[in-house]
Amino acid sequence: MGKTIVDKIWESHIVSEIENGPSVLYIDRHFIHEVTSPQAFSGLDKRGLPVFRPGNTFATCDHNVPTKDQEKPIRDESSRIPVEKLAQNTQKHGISYFPLGHKNNGVVHIIGPELGLTQCGMTIVCGDSHTSTHGALGNIAFGIGTSEVEMVLATQTLLQKKPKQMLIKVEGALASGVCSKDIILYIISKLGTSSGTGYFVEFSGSTISALSMEERMTICNMSIEMGARGGIIAPDEVTIEYLEGREFSPKGENWKTMSRQWLSLKSDEDAHFDVVHIFNAEEIEPMITYGTNPGMGIPIGSRVPLITKESSQEASFMKSIEYMGFEMGERLIGKAIDYVFIGSCTNGRIEDFRAFASIVKGRKKSPDVVAWLVPGSKRVEGQIEKEGLGDILREAGFEIREPGCSACLGMNEDKVPAGKYAVSTSNRNFEGRQGPGARTILAGPYVAAAAAVTGVITDPREFL
Asked: Count of domains in the chain?
């Protein structure tokens, strides 16, 4: 029987195996940030241990950082102290660190691929659940806890039980106005937020192959929202073209060797998957969420579902839509919104800003909307200006902020007030995720842009 891409990468990274237990996996790339690393470094210090291979770890600050006036000292002590600790710990242990203002600074899961630190066939970990993003380049990439961050720093290995495997194929051409965020929201709405629990998910099919690398990253980023350990897409010519020439990508003859090797990395035709799902891209429309988990999604023109009292999910469903202030059977088109956020490791890349600007161009921001436009990295910030998108956005009344996780999780000053509605291109719509009492509606950049200029939930296809 053939092997999957996950089988091949996993087996090539086994250092040793514990009988009837987990594998000891070698970790190629370790990303750290200011939130989940301080405790890990403290653990090393208490044990008198150095970082085993500092050259394999790269650090950035993103979660706690402000997205305005980054050249000034961070005012909020709860944000400033972790950032200062990260600078101290990386300097002490000789780890590469990209601080605020550095040309390579940005959201950890955006800078990894754009710098070429994320390559194919790797094992990649970070103390952040959305490490699954890196799987778009053909990696086993997953989030880890703080104790595991310490383990990787100390040994460059990790104890892991191999997950089961799921194949999700998406076939066909996407309609105009439908983006990769809509694909993954559609999949999660059909399968549920626990459907991937215990699995690593490979995404394939003609639809996936036709996506750009940045669109693929959005898909793998949100694989974690269906409960999966991670998502992966096999490398192809799109992957190779994306990685070629990046700062940390292989160079010269090494590039030729590695790119050939990467292109051969794929699942065998007779590989076994524990579960297989197939979707038709032509059935996917622009999506929005109506509840408090990413699985509560509907096509933008549809109604909030009806659910009977006999349903086992009735209590949680009612609690969710009551929190959101919605009713069963209600259409959300035309619903007034207060905030729009474009950014995060899900949709903070240059292609997302191009999509947003394509809707906004020649129009004006609604005076009733507060909009946070937050590039995912310094490089994205610079590209926005280089391409003239900044002029388009400012002319429409928008302000472009500085890189960071921002309103995705509200660990900084970018918080949505209680009771207010935010159309957000981020990955989670949990209660209070964007601020205590905030009401989050997940969507892609087209839907976010349409809402930003109209002040209400609007089908972006009206503008295309």
From this structure: 2
Angle at 343 between CA 185 and CA 362, to 5 degrees: 95
* Report field, pTM of the whole predicted structure over 0.90: yes
Q: Do 445 and 339 touch, CB atoms closer than 8 A? A: no
Helices (H) and strands (E) in the chain, counts: 16, 18
Residue with tokens 């090539």: 12
pLDDT in tens, 261-289: 999 999 999 999 999 999 999 999 999 99
Q: Pick from 115, 139, 160: which residue ends a domain?
A: 160
Statement to judge: residues 446 and 310 lie in one domain: yes
Q: Nearest CA to 379 among 113, 120, 129, 130? A: 113
Provide the residue range defining the domain that includes 329.
287-463
| Sole residue written with tokens 């292109």 | 263
Last residue of a domain, one of 132, 160, 188: 160
Dist CA 376 CA 389 (whole Å): 15
Pairing of strands 275-280, 230-232: unpaired
Neighbouring-strand partners of residue 371:
340
